[in-house]
Structures
1.
Amino acid sequence: MKQEKKNDVAVLLEYAGSRRGLTFLGLALSAVSMLLSMAPYICIWLAARDLIEAAPEWTQAQNVSKYGWIAFAFAVSGIILYFAGLMCTHLAAFRTASNIRKQGVAHVMKAPLGFFDSNASGLIRGRLDAAAADTETLLAHNLADIVGTIVLFLSMLVMMFLFDWRMGAACLLAAVISVIAMFSMMGGKNAKLMAEYQAAQDRMTKAGTEYVRGIPVVKIFQQTVYSFKAFQEAIEDYSSKAEHYQADVCRVPQSVNLTFTEGAFVFLVPVALFLAPDALANGSFAGFVADFVFYAVFSAIISTALAKIMFASSGMMLASTALGRINQVMEAPTLEAPSHPQSPRSNKVEFKDVSFTYNGSESPALSHVSFTAEPGQTVALVGPSGGGKTTAASLIPRFWDATSGAVEVGGVNVAQIDPHVLMDQVAFVFQNNRLFKASILENVRASRPEATREQVMAALMAAQCKDILDKLPDGLDTQIGTEGTYLSGGEQQRIALARAILKDAPIVVLDEATAFADPENEVLIQKAFATLTKGRTVIMIAHRLSTVVGADKIIILEEGHIVEQGTHAELTASGGLYARMWTDYNKAVQWKITSEKEAE
Ligand code: ADP
């Protein structure tokens, strides 16, 4: 096993697959192009020397135009190579970005369904897209610039000795000072401050998103931004960190950096003035002026190169955040497919001493839960909010896997059933079952792609959706979500029920959740429920006790434990939690009826 931590860029490059080599080729071309682009400066030096030697007989300097053409040829070939280099790095970068997206999505496809509850699909896509975009800039541009700048500095060192080392050193000194100033902002304890500053920025962005999501609540309750404590604190924290970072860390080094980046002359001119008398005295003034011209022109490219390093180093920082984002997606848990899948032997559902704790949670959401739903029976899960009803139901279609104990379908642990077989066996209708932005036909057919139009229609009728189809302009083919075709919560739920009915699975896991249904919808939904559950094994999360009276078995879950189980008659007779809930429920119904009567 390799223990050493791989460089972030190397890890990102692995995503380039077969095009990884193109990155290296691109970088090599960029290095050569940088060398070629230096040559014109040497030509300028040669031309200047010839001119000065010939002065004032300028026409005697015959090689000047030759040098001009050579410079031109070098410059053009430099540009062509740079272009070719960027082409290579871009091809590799595009492949990397597309592989990051593909591999991320492929990985997420294997994640348990529950993963998508806590990681909205938009968030996952956002993470992958941002990572892919950052990687693109880094691999396509920044790396080439970094290599180019390194080559530039190395060639500056060579040129320093090639012409006049003293003037070369003067140019280099300015560059060195600005690089030191730049890195002093990023290294040591400043790196920690920089990280804190970026973390504060991230927190502020997140709190901002939460705030925007909460705007409806803010408007309804007439609150101000100050009511969003977390957002306000995030802004204040960011502003104090930003101020501290700018004032105490960046002010001096950044000023030094900019001064010396733009002012390589600062040292060059005094050094030249110092050297001039000597050059005059020993008759080498022409060479001296040529050297000076060379360095004066050459120093201008130093500032461009330094600016590129600035961008490139921020690109390198992006690499680690991009990698972090990719890893968040790639580290999502995956459902292990069984190596020797077994087929369920019946439609029985059984929980055997099941415990489950959510990732990052301290207390279990379910502990030692055991119950059986015989084929064709309806089992209702009842209990206070947070009792574990949804969690228990989610374990059957493997939204999550039990932490200990076993959830069995037809006598086989769900983890040992081929996921496709399990999905064929179980239909589930949960509160957040979403409809796609597609036609009603496609939405219903999602559960059984080979179903005919007639079968879809029959399912919709069984789910009491006739009124919905009648009012939609294109009936079955109406696109949901397009202008004017938004469905109410209750209507969406009926379409979701039609989808489950079409699936015709022998086991149904459903969340009664009629919370948002209006009375008209509610009657229809109850009818649809009746069709869906007839003759099947049903595990139902019940919110209102009126719907559980007829259940074969009622399981009362409180704080993850089964506190009671039995039929309605048994439980009301035993005088426990269910009996108390039943009394309260009846009182509430009575109260509602009385107050409605009084209102009449
Ligand atoms: P119920 O459906 O009875 O209201 P749940 O099954 O939703 O109860 O919740 C049981 C417990 O698990 C609660 O304490 C809840 O806070 C916790 N819980 C539910 N979903 C998650 C989740 N995705 N991550 C962490 N904890 C969760």
2.
Amino acid sequence: MNRRYRKTIIAGNWKMNKTATETKKFAEELKALLPKAKWCDVVVCVPAVNISAAMKAFKDMRVSIGAENLFYEKSGAYTGEWSADMLKDLGVKYVIIGHSERRQYFGETDFTVNKKVHAALEAGLHPIICVGESLEQRELGITMELIALQVKSALAGVPAEKLRKCVIAYEPVWAIGTGKTATSEQAAEVCTFIRTTVRHLYGARIARSITIQYGGSMKASNAAELLAQPDIDGGLIGGAALKADEFVDIINAANQD
Ligand code: PEP
């Protein structure tokens, strides 16, 4: 973390978990546990059908609501989809784009990720852009090439003034939901490489100000060490974000000096 230059953001990704009723219960539990002063921003990304319930449930708390996906068109005949403007209108602040589960199960590509990033920014949302290599790609030694490609394609055509709204999440696919966490050295190496890639594209000032998260089995026991790395400015958290006490432990780790 480097709070002098950029925000620390702890974001939960609920994936396809929790009903509206469970959302309300989680918010009540979180409210009781959340520290009064926090040096990090807290985001909870919920299934789209629960956004209104989440807005209501978290309304008195300093917690932003995020979505887990959007479609890049503004409106039209796209049954089952929702647009960036629809999210914005509900009060959503962040939206996860290009999560590896979207890439794996729903045909998301670097090309659609880029279109979604543009749609999110145009609507005034903060995209949390996910990048990350598979185990095979890591073993082939092409992690950095792949990450550079994903970052450059996701940001293609994004003007410098809009980059401030973007968050990049490094999520090694082999560490998501597997209980295997990247070592802090592995995570730091890639997060630093992402910042260098952004610096080559946008210059040092912007690269210094962008929030880069780590995601992949982050939990209370490893959060402090991961967040102590200078280029890791927060976490995108799946499993451990589903229980209020575990999520708060990670928030507390981000609150340390
Ligand atoms: C995620 O869904 O982005 C994630 C990192 O999941 P988990 O923390 O469960 O590995």
3.
Amino acid sequence: MAVHATSLAALTRDAGILFGADFNPEQWSRATWHEDVHLMRAAGVNLVTVGVFSWSRYEPQEGRIDLEWMGEVLDLLADASIGVDLATPTASPPPWLGHRYPSTLPVTRDGVRLGYGSRSHFSPASAIYREHCRRIARAVVERFADHPAVRMWHIGNELGQVCFGDEAAIAFRRWLRARYGTLDGLNEAWATAVWSQAYGDWQEVLPPRAAPYLHNPSQELDFRRFSSDLLLELFAEQKAIVRELDPVRPVTTNLMGFFADADYRSWAGELDIIADDAYPDPADPHGPVDAALTQDLMRSLAGGDPWMLMEQATSAVSWRMHNLVKSPARSRLESLQAVARGCDAVCFFQWRQARSGPERFHSAMLPLSGADTDVHRGVRRLGADLARLRPVVGARVPANVALVWDWPSWWAGTQEALPSDRLDPLATLRAWYRPLWRAGVTVDVVASTGDLSPYRAVLVPSLAVMGTEQAANLESYTRGGGRVVLGPFSGIADTHAHLHVGRFPVLLRAVVGVSGEEWVPLPDEGSSITWSDGRVSRVETFGERLRADGARTLATFGPGPLEGCVAVSEHDVGGGTAWYVGTVLPPEALATLLEQITPTGTATRVSAPKGIEVVVRGGALFLLNHSRGPLRVPVRHLLLAVPRVDEARGTVVDLLTDTRFGPMDEVVLEIDGAAVLMACDGNGHPTAELP
Ligand code: GAL
């Protein structure tokens, strides 16, 4: 298979799954660096991210740059055959920058200029900050582009800063001019006739700063688009410097899952590797399923190619109010879950636990108490496990159901002054994902304007913003034989956040065969709906005053403000079918509905006990035990899902343990245990084709 040089595959082809962490040598002595490298090797570490927070060490005073110490670090790593993801150090400018040039510091919505002494204290709109970023990035890349340790480049860290200051205002105006051309265009797009907001001069246009009352929703939406574009510009500017000096090695930055301040969909094409930071809360019972959704998002952003888990914690983080630890087995399971869902690089924050600074209580691969610890033994075990998973490296994760997710709809669905602030789009997306996850249905997370043709069903839990392009895409997919499900409060507004005029969902009314006239937040006691088969479900939060215009009614509202109205409907249109869900269904009812809608053959054909996550990746079947106890799974229940198992006469091997199982055996999964099964020959060698 041809491997693009500027990709994750180019790195994993020889190294296998990448395994490592952020490494912050500036916090430690030279003697410690040597010990670190020795212990990294022993743990199977093959990649470390360095230089993320090195700017003040590189350049303690303006213009006085010393990169030699980093040269030593890279030499040590190269000698140990440990690759490096080298960062531009722009996430935390040195104090002199903020001190000398206060305009580089970010300004909040309330007009407060933030100080330095922490990190991320920069405005992405600041010309001076950007100039210094280019300068230091160029110095670092020029010096190390030919270093044998460097495998890839990392721009900044978790780009997410939003600034409301004067330079941000100038940049916002520039962005708006490019989008709307004229002030008339802007006034129309922002509907400034409302509340006497019409602009007569570009200088009057501002970010949506703290104001006496509610903000203009169209302005808010554009400011979020602009802020996302501005951060991407900051990334692209530093990436261009890398590209100029190193035409080949991949460049990335670390994303933050479902992060609201950047539209990662529009970023994805700029990143050579999709890389994510994931810190699921061990206290959250939905943690594993929400993590899976984020992983599916990352894989989808990567176009189905492998992605990178750039950061996670081995045990506790230190930034929540009460930081639960994770067992080494739990941490291992979380990493294996990512691999199951397409990840080929498993990294942590950070290698050695800090003894100082705000993150001194944050776990690491090497705790302060040393290598003779459960956490570190867990790390070594994981390193060995990942080395065993070579047969899945580069493999794709088949998915034939899509969940639609657009950032502008998320933004529009979380603005001020909506019918209800309880209908959170991300919560809705997660709620719809949960029954699919439990049923072993792997999904891609796609744009409403994306190519939907590969999918046998497309679920649209929450899509407030629907322009003609989005509507046409969903309509042609449905008419062409697709199955589409639309959730409540979808298709209500155009791309400027102006409501569509007419019975809703205006642009898709003919497709869904129902139409609505009023959004109806429900009283706290909720309401009930009755399904056509007589079942009754409690519903809560939100409903819509809908009537059937050709669709079959699947459920009708009971007593309350929506009595007699359609709650859920189904409509055949063209060769396909469209469902409309006009309320917030309880988990069981949603699960039943989605099970009926997702066609047979979309789930991994496995009847595994509850609590076991099942994912097929390439030729392997991953079984991940998230339940509270050990579970046994008969191999014969799994066989339909194991690729090429027929030729292997039902014999499978667990890549993690090399244990061979026949069709009459059982796989035993301990708490937080996992198995990765592949069809194998009589000698236990996997028979599936390697990618
Ligand atoms: C991330 C960040 C790391 C570290 C980590 C701690 O957000 O990129 O530098 O702070 O959190 O969990």
4.
Amino acid sequence: MQSTGNDIKITVDGNTICYDDFGSGTTPIIFIHGFPFNKSTWQPQMEALKENHRVIAYDIRGFGNSSATDENFSINLFADDLIKFMDALQIQKSIVCGLSMGGYIALNAVNRYAKRFEALILCDTQCIADSEMVKDNRYKTIKEIEENGLNQFATNFIETAFCEETLKTKVNAVNTIKNIILSTSQKTITKTLTALANRQELCFSLPQIFIPALILCGREDKITPLKQSEYLNDHFVYSTLHSLDKAGHLSNLEQPAAFNKYVNEFISILNPATVAQI
Ligand code: MLT
């Protein structure tokens, strides 16, 4: 049975997982946020799509209002959480939409639990693992955070994540993201940096994925650049790529209207009966 609303709590693998669940439809769209954010970053998509679809956004363990047990994090663990979360909500199949780290989790889950997914939406993400240089940077960042806290990390992240135009014109959105980072526990951030550094490359798997994929990427994404999305699009069996002008790494927040239009078009093709008027 579906509980509808904001901030619903459910126990998954010993953790409280907090989620929003709106709308109705046979195959829900599950949104997975990036690092180090929370489910609220999907609000423009939840609002736009809930009239015609069941939409669910959850806080990954340790983020937002979800709790985390002591064990180490990994992308495998987060992907297992997604499946256990779907089990707890009695969702047999979903359309999964992940941004950046959310995309790593979605791609991992689709690989290991193919039957549980009808379609895949990957936003500002990639299939490569970290290079040695990127790993070293993550370990330096962990040390920096342990010594000095989150302030400098949050400032650097914001400056890299958003495009120039967003930094100038969407000051409230930028500050909201900064506050989300600052309100995330230091332990969650350092444990996730380690999980990101240790994640496996999944590029080999793309030609073996037979569900349709939509790929979206901000043209000015400096963290997971557009060429990574082009690679995904060149190697999936069924995929479409759209790049978004005046958007960096958080394309869903920087250009929500264009982003929602592409998502809606994609879902409508999967099931023409559910065309949303957005
Ligand atoms: C994210 O937005 O999820 C992260 O920037 C991903 C990463 O650092 O690889």
